[in-house]
Amino acid sequence: MPRIIPSSSSLPKTFPVPGYRHFLTPLRKLIFDYDAESPSQHGVRAFIRKPLMNLARANPDVEILVRRLKRGKAAVVRGHYVNGRDKVICVNRLEMDEVSNKVNILLNSSGAKVKHLKNSTLEAAPASESARGIWSALHAQQKDGSGYRI
After folding, report:
1. 107 with 94: CB under 8 angstroms?
2. How many C-beta neighbours within 10 Å does residue 131 have?
3. Is 26 buried (19+), middle (13-18) or exposed (0-12) by CB count in 10 A?
4. HEC string of 66-83?
5. At what angle do helices 96-108 and 42-49 cross, to 10 degrees?
6. What is the pTM of this model?
7. Which of 59, 78, 92, 125 could form a disulfide with 74 if both were Cys (CB 3.0 to 4.6 A apart)?
8. Which domains does the chain have, with CATH numbers?
């Protein structure tokens, strides 16, 4: 009796799905606005010369745009996100490594609106239990004639 050897085509195969195992940042577009002649923007110009190329190679899913401004305008970095929001950070009078830190803030941000928790109030839903739990007379210890102890 001949022996049946399974062919390689009958074994299950897995195929990589495009985009699977690839994290896409929520940042879609990064725009550098700067003045080429202003002495206060030397950090931005130094960042655009060298580290910006490495940043573009490391993040191929982010579109990077460099625009020259009119004289007297402050240098800014704008980040446009997938959710339609944008964040603008002024990088005027910053050194090259400080500009790099600001760009990393935009790259690592989700683009969601910042929610301040300092003055927010917590509202309890109707019929929800209190923070201390549910109280009942059955759970409390009773003293002789003095009522329930809470």
Report:
1. no
2. 7
3. middle
4. EEECCCCCCCEEEEEECC
5. 70
6. 0.64
7. 92
8. 27-108 (3.40.30.10)
